[in-house]
Amino acid sequence: MTDASEHAIVVGASLAGLRGAESLRRAGFTGRITLVGSEAHAPYDRPPLSKHVLMGHVPADATTLPNLHPLDAEWRLGVAARSLNRRDRILTLADGETLAYDRLLIATGARARPWPDTAQARFAGVHTLRDRDDATALHRDLAARPGHVLVIGGGFIGCEVAAACRALDLPVTLVEPGPTPLARVLGEHLGAVVGALHAGIGVTVRSHTRVEALYNDGTGRVVRARLDNGSSIAASVVVVALGAVRNTEWLDASGLAFDEGGVDCDAAGYVLDTEGRPDRRIAAAGDVARFPHPLYGGRRVALEHWGHAVAQGEHAGRLLAEAEPGEPYAELPAFWSSQGGITIKSVGLTEGADGLVIAQGDPKAGRFLAVYGREGRCIAAVSFDCARWLPAYAERIAAGASFPPPAGASDSGALTILPPSFPAEPR
Amino acid sequence: MLQDRPEPAGSVPTDESPRAAPPLRVSVDLNRCQAYAQCCYAAPGHFVLQGREALYYDPAPSAADRLVVERARIACPVQAIHVESPGTDRR
């Protein structure tokens, strides 16, 4: 058991950190809790930033997260963690303050991967979208009704931004090096459905295309982009949506195992040192935590999902409060995205799928559910505008039930196993 | 209330709203949400379905609307709505 003289520090004051701190309390931790956050804002919700905030329906500063449990805590907001000394159990902040800890939760999340050319990345009108301040800046530029928006990268953020631009009736081009938008997560088969959805709302989708350089107008404002086929497109606003980099640099001298893909944890959630030994005073949760998922053969994953930040944050809080004896974290991954009026939801992980069936509905009708299989087992399900069917398939996935799932739903005939067609190289 | 144009939610105090009361904090677990739309009936203007199941909600309703927002929370068949009322001590 922990006692009242102990000090727990939560590094990272976003969703996973907040829910982790609340969970420490709920699990009976009676000592001091300090939350450290690099942003000056109290914990806020990110999903609205790429949707309703860009469309101007909700202000960027309106998404402060509700507390779900009383949290008697101290806050260090607007100051990042600089380094971790595990031998003396000292956390040093960017402003030089040192804090001694007995328990530490690493929940520093990730940041947007920047445009690789730093000079071009600084052009006015070039954005990434991750934080509240990013959303404020991008919304301001979109509200000024730019002549043409270029979105670089057809992942979830890129797709949601492109759809938001169309909702604002702005011309937008989505450039994606893969065969379709979302091909890396959904495969080319469903990616084509997403591509058609975006084409249908007026997004110009350029697949198999890379942006090679951005150009400014001589005053530092972006005006066009050169593509790898030699052509150029005009762009007064550019959104760089190339995925995320985990915030792990502050762990440099910690002796923990980490890289830009996350900090390594064992199955329970304790962080591992470079020799692979767990540090039972430190857990990690959310985007930054890379852990072996028991449902996927212990494959190490770091998940950027909202529900995962909540569930793993809560798990880590119980772990650090010593309320559970190191149970493995085994939450089924799940996410949603809404774009162009369609809601895409997923459970499980599609990576490595060798087959796909449309188990409910019909992609041509815009409402359907696809199940992904690997080696005869269900590993993931993805719904387009039919979320109520998803929980039944989530149970099959969690149970490792056989693939393909049984046919016979009222609106589907025999199930045909299709190739999901993931692109050969991920980026 | 949700805005058609950019304008801070809850920035216009109504007659019954205590001037100092901070807005509520609302988040919805959209993994859980299955678009039953009960919140949209319970608190129209704070919860709206766009398309078949894209739920669009006001994350910062005015404190004066606490009762209707609470009604929406309670009405949710899958209990996906979280509401924190003003005055709850975050510290």
Supply the CATH superfamily name of the largest domain in chain A.
FAD/NAD(P)-binding domain
Quick one: CATH class of the largest domain in chain A?
Answer: Alpha Beta
Strand content of chain A: 25-35%
Would you identify the CATH architecture of the domain at 25-84 in chain B?
A: 2-Layer Sandwich
Structural class of chain A: alpha/beta
The count of helical stretches of chain B stands at: 2
Bin the helical content of chain B: 10-25%
Please indicate the percent range of residues of chain B in DSSP E strands (runs of 2 or more).
15-25%
Number of domains in the coordinates of chain A?
3
Compact overview of the structure:
With about 425 residues, chain A is an alpha/beta fold.
Describe the structure in your own words.
The complex is a heterodimer of chains A (427) and B (91). Chain A is an alpha/beta fold and 427 residues long. In chain A, 20% of the residues lie in helices and 30% in strands. Chain A folds into 3 domains: 7-111 and 245-320, 3-Layer(bba) Sandwich (FAD/NAD(P)-binding domain); 114-242, FAD/NAD(P)-binding domain (3-Layer(bba) Sandwich), CATH 3.50.50.60; 341-427, FAD/NAD-linked reductase, C-terminal dimerisation domain (Enolase-like, domain 1, 2-Layer Sandwich), CATH 3.30.390.30. A 6-stranded mixed β-sheet of chain A has the order 3-2-1-7-21-20, covered by helices on one side. Chain A has a 5-stranded parallel β-sheet with strand order 9-16-10-11-12. In chain A, helix 1 (15-26) packs parallel to helix 7. Chain A is globular. Chain B is an alpha+beta fold and 91 residues long. Chain B has 2 helices and 4 strands, in the order βαββαβ. The longest helix of chain B has 10 residues, at 66-75. A two-stranded antiparallel sheet of chain B has the order 1-4. Chain B has a two-stranded antiparallel sheet with strand order 2-3. Chain B has a domain at 25-84: Alpha-Beta Plaits (2-Layer Sandwich). Residues 5-18 of chain B have low confidence and may be disordered. At the A-B interface, helix 7, strand 24 and strand 25 of A face strand 1 and strand 4 of B.
